[in-house]
Design brief:
With 998 residues, the chain is of the alpha/beta class. It has a seven-stranded mixed beta sheet, with helices on one face. It has a six-stranded mixed β-barrel with strand order 20-25-22-24-23-26. α10 links the parallel β11 and β12. The radius of gyration is 28 Å and the shape is globular. The chain binds iron/sulfur cluster (2 copies). One iron/sulfur cluster binds next to α26 and β31.
Length: 998
């Protein structure tokens, strides 16, 4: 089933599409980079930097731990068994919204983070950053002591020193009613912090509170005020939506409720229930949501308001009650965009009451207001959308707030500046010059996990306790409150924002736990009783704390001003749009090596950001992939490497934020390019730039062509290989569900030596649903955390030596300017006729009686014949002892149930054999059979879309057996007769019948 002209329909990179010699060399070289050997002295230094971030740690940790803590128990405490994992519920807040987590802990040592199934924003799933928080907890570069900076000198201080300074200083502030005090806080949804803030304002009425969050959702709030005159937020319900239009948003990966939304979205993508949703997405740079769309329009962010206006006009033409002022398009668009708008409007109108329009945070308030207006006209409220009062809704925008602070600092009106978290000196709008203004305050204090860019501008840096080691509380996007309970005593001490604010306001506090315990959270107006508190700790959610829906109706006078603002032109020139980075977000996770090494879902670039530009725009600008370019906006300029990415809108450059850090820590410092200097308060989302190629090249460590399945090479060697990604249109599939199976025509040749006989009670197998997978990468981090998989650093990734046991291949299809995207997670396929086993000279890779393709590490002598013979390219070789210099504190993140592999062995997916065995042992001890679904590998457990299903193929009624027999099921490279135990379910698309491809 090769594509036309001998080419395949799906391609991973422009090099593959063009079949360049570079691509052919990469896929034919089994072990790329071998000639640049491991003797490279820089390599060793790099490992020291990444993996053993501080050798001094060892001495410090040995001082830190009170001796009695490492003594064995003389008698075992009741309810505690050494070496047995226990799970506790807690919560992680990011940009003012929370997801609920379950943290697995061994002997008081958190090792693995999963989603809390009882939490409405998590439903059991966890994102890559949430899972990687365990590495952040054990980051040896976290601050251990307060730091005092004065007159160009800095000195480490004890906590007693800090308290000796802070207590009289805070007393003095209270005595002066907070005169000259400014507090700058990152976004927080904590009910306790909100309560303490009220107390603070009473105790210190002259103090001023400011907020700054670089990736805030302020425009959404402002849009609600425009539409309703009220500060509400929208809580979408995709389970009921049949037509969804996303206007420059990333509902499935970038929204605060993304895990739930992804679950709901995927539930109706499988084509099993007689219905399938349809997603239209318009965006400047491909996102996870755009990649999942049935119709994706690559369009500059500045043209999206006009597109939204065209959709409104289209809806009016279809009889939807759109206000008069919005019934005409604001301005003309090109034919492609007009077709997209017409198709979206037609489908929205047909699906009235089951449709939804969502605008992204980059879009101005008027687009959000229009989305609210159209959603009301479409009957979305109460069906696919509910409005809830924003708990922090009365505030000004973050840009206004931080601008106000900068003004007061400039005017010398701030005596004491207390900064609670964040990194404003690095990420505040560049035109404010906040980094330099901080020094104008007589006293400045920064509470932070790391001694970062902002800390270094302050007189005091105060270490912050990690969320896994401190008490707190926070709200999910729908308002549900979770208690953040600590899993471990603070490794380096540390304070929390709650404790600092309480100390400042003079509250008598024994502990942060008491502060949280005293906060009313369930809407009753009084703190939880003992039973309610215990239940909240156990379940991870406070029952009845979700925000109730509110009735809102669009103000009659709203439409006119919205229509007028939609017509403002996008202007000429290249548009640079700022993007949240899929790994480091706004830069806060820059020192997390798991996240740095996680390939970007779309570009597959690791350890870097880049200026993302489409092929046509790159050609127009005369810029090559990997070439350094200068981007200039007025007097501001940066240099950054260009990365040519199919699907970026014409005239657009995407700039992921969060790189080029200078004080992130040894892992994150100097990685990538700082694009914040181009971001100004007037234009925090997009800015016009001049682009100039600099001629210099830069190496981007992209994994997009690594471990490519060489289907073309196999065909050249006489095999006929079917498409690796099998797709069908929903309408066709519904008409003839067996068509996929018939077309695949998977042969089952006779075995030369008879079928393999298995003696085990179980036969393990897996399915991965390509229709559900959105390419979010959560499975890759879950596997890394569960299986002690090392990071290798940029240089090794560039040589194709990344160690991930599960990779998420991203394929394009169609034209490079407007391609469709598909994702395919690939791990070991546990083949029945495993080609790796037959070539291993020392029987280090063997078949188990339950059908697992097992690795016996201590037999492996590193010939790598197995990897050479694996058609799926899923085996990973340890070229180095990546853990050799891992510090004691980092070793606490290891899963004790999984071997830490040494140098020179081959490793790969084991189907999480440790999880299989622990369930088997428990079932055996309790003399009961293993229930279907009781064994859940880490990747399947965390997947927000439940794309991965694992189970026993010997049980014909198990879910995995049923899915193996599903009409959409197919085996990758079935033609080779290796008989993989993994099967994929074909991807379904649901294009609009009336629309040409946009
Ligand atoms: Fe994300 Fe992996 Fe699930 Fe795909 S399979 S949706 S990449 S977690
Ligand atoms: Fe990794 Fe386990 Fe999933 Fe295999 S089954 S890819 S080892 S998480």
């Amino acid at each position: 089933m090769s594509g036309e002209n001998g080419k395949r329909a799906h391609w991973r990179s422009l090099d593959e599409l063009a079949d360049t010699p570079e691509f052919r060399e990469l896929v034919s070289a089994e072990f790329p980079g071998l000639e640049e050997d491991i003797a490279d002295p820089a390599t060793r230094r790099e490992f020291v930097k990444i993996l053993g971030a501080s050798l001094g740690m060892v001495g410090l940790t040995s001082c830190r731990w009170p001796k009695e803590m490492i003594l064995p128990f003389a008698s075992q405490p009741a309810g505690r068994a050494p070496g047995v994992a226990v799970q506790y519920a807690t919560a992680m807040e990011l940009c003012g919204a929370t997801v609920g987590l379950l943290v697995t802990s061994y002997d008081g040592r958190p090792v693995k983070i999963e989603g809390n199934p009882l939490h409405p924003a998590s439903l059991g799933a966890a994102s890559a950053p949430a899972q990687a928080a365990v590495l952040e907890l054990y980051d040896p570069a976290r601050s251990r002591q307060p730091v005092r900076r004065e007159g160009g000198k800095e000195a480490r201080q004890s906590w007693e020193d800090f308290d000796a300074f802070a207590t009289p200083h805070f007393n003095g502030l209270r005595a002066s009613r907070g005169r000259g005090l400014a507090i700058l806080s990152e976004a927080s949804s904590s009910p306790t912090l909100a309560r303490l803030r009220v107390g603070l304002v009473e105790a210190l009425p002259e103090a001023r509170w400011y907020g700054w969050e670089p990736l805030s959702r302020d425009n959404e709030l402002e849009g609600a005020r425009l539409a309703f005159g009220r500060s509400v937020r929208g809580v979408p319900d995709l389970s009921r939506a049949r037509v969804i239009v996303s206007l420059d948003g990333d509902l499935l990966a970038g929204h605060p409720d993304a895990l739930r939304l992804a679950r709901e979205f995927a539930a109706t993508r499988r084509g099993d229930g007689g219905e399938m949703n349809r997603l239209f997405a318009a965006e400047p740079v491909p996102s996870v949501t755009g990649a999942a769309a049935d119709h994706r329009l690559a369009l500059a962010a500045g043209s999206i308001p006009a597109l939204a206006s065209s959709i409104a006009a289209g809806l009016a033409a279809h009889g939807v009650a759109v206000p008069e002022a919005l019934r005409k398009p604001a301005r003309a668009l090109d034919a492609r965009a007009e077709r997209f708008a017409a198709a979206a409007a037609a489908d929205l109108a047909v699906a009235r009451g089951r449709s939804l329009i969502v605008a992204g945070p980059r879009q101005p308030a008027e687009v959000h207001a229009l989305a609210w207006i159209l959603n009301e006209a479409l009957g979305a409220f109460g069906a696919t959308l509910r409005a809830v009062d924003d708990p922090d809704g009365d505030r000004e925008s973050h840009v206004q707030s931080v601008t106000g602070l900068a003004g007061r600092l400039r005017a010398g009106e701030v005596e004491t500046l207390l900064i609670l978290g964040g990194n404003a000196a690095y990420d505040a709008p560049a035109d404010l010059g906040l980094a330099d203004l901080i020094g104008r305050a007589r006293v400045s204090i920064h509470l932070s996990l790391h001694d970062n860019e902002t800390s270094r501008r302050c007189a005091w840096h105060v270490p912050r306790a990690h969320f896994l080691e401190s008490w707190g509380d926070a709200r999910a996007w729908d308002g549900t409150v979770s208690v953040q309970q600590p899993l471990i005593e603070a490794l380096y001490g540390g304070r929390t924002p709650l404790e600092l604010v309480a100390a400042l306001s003079g509250a008598r506090v024994e502990s942060a736990r008491d502060l949280v315990r005293a906060t009313p959270t369930d809407g009753s107006g009084s703190p939880l009783g003992e039973a309610g508190w215990r239940r909240a700790l156990h379940d991870g959610v406070v029952e009845g704390s979700g925000l109730p829906p509110v009735r809102v109706s669009v103000r009659a006078e709203a439409a006119g001003p919205v229509a007028a603002r939609l017509g403002v032109g996008a202007g000429r020139g290249t548009e640079a749009v700022f993007l949240a980075d899929a790994s480091v977000h706004d830069g806060r996770f820059a020192n997390n090596a798991w996240l740095q090494e996680l390939p970007d879902p779309i570009t597959r670039v690791t350890w870097d950001n880049a200026a993302l530009v489409g092929p046509a725009t790159a050609a127009e600008l005369g810029v090559r992939h990997g070439e350094m370019v200068a981007l200039t906006a007025g007097e501001r300029s940066i240099e950054i490497a260009a990365c040519v990415v199919p699907g970026v809108a014409e005239g657009v450059i995407g700039l992921p934020l969060g790189y080029g850090r200078r004080a992130a820590g040894p892992v994150g410092d100097g990685v990538g390019f700082d694009v914040y200097p181009l971001r100004v308060s007037e234009a925090p989302h997009a800015v016009k730039v001049d682009v100039r190629g600099l001629g210099r090249s830069y190496v981007l460590a992209s994994t997009q062509d690594h471990h490519a399945i060489d289907a073309i090479g196999m065909e050249e060697r006489g095999r006929r290989i079917g498409e690796l990604i099998v797709e069908a249109e929903w309408a066709e599939y519904r008409r003839d569900p067996d068509a996929i199976r018939r077309e695949r025509h998977e042969p089952k040749p006779l075995a030369l030596f008879g079928e393999l006989e298995y003696g085990g009670d179980h036969q393990w197998g897996m399915t991965i649903d390509l229709s559900a997978c959105i390419g979010c990468n959560a499975c890759a981090v879950a596997c890394q955390a569960e299986n002690n998989i090392p990071v290798v650093g940029k240089k090794q990734v560039a040589r194709g030596r990344e160690m991930h046991w599960i990779r998420v291949d991203r394929y394009f299809k169609g034209s490079p300017e407007a391609p469709a995207v598909a994702f395919q997670p690939v791990a070991c396929q546990h083949c029945e006729n495993a080609p790796c086993e037959s070539v291993c000279p020392v029987a280090a890779t063997v078949h188990s009686s339950e059908g697992l393709n097992s690795m016996v590490y201590n037999r492996c002598v590193g010939t790598r014949y197995c990897s050479n013979n694996c058609p799926y390219k899923v085996r990973r070789f340890n070229y180095f002892n990546y853990f050799k210099r891992t510090s004691q504190v980092e070793k606490m993140a290891f899963n004790p149930d999984v071997t830490v592999r040494a140098r020179g062995v081959m490793e790969k997916c084991t189907f999480c054999v440790q999880r299989i065995e622990s369930v088997k042992i428990a079932a055996k001890n309790e003399r009961r059979p293993i229930a279907d679904g009781a064994i859940v590998p880490a990747c399947a457990q965390t997947c927000p879309t439940e794309a991965i299903v694992f189970g026993d193929l010997r049980d014909p009624s198990s879910r995995v057996s049923q899915l193996h027999r599903h009409p959409r099921a197919y085996s990758l490279l079935a033609e080779l007769n290796v008989q993989p135990r993994n099967r994929y379910l074909a991807k379904l698309r649901n294009p609009s019948s009336g629309a040409e491809e946009a």
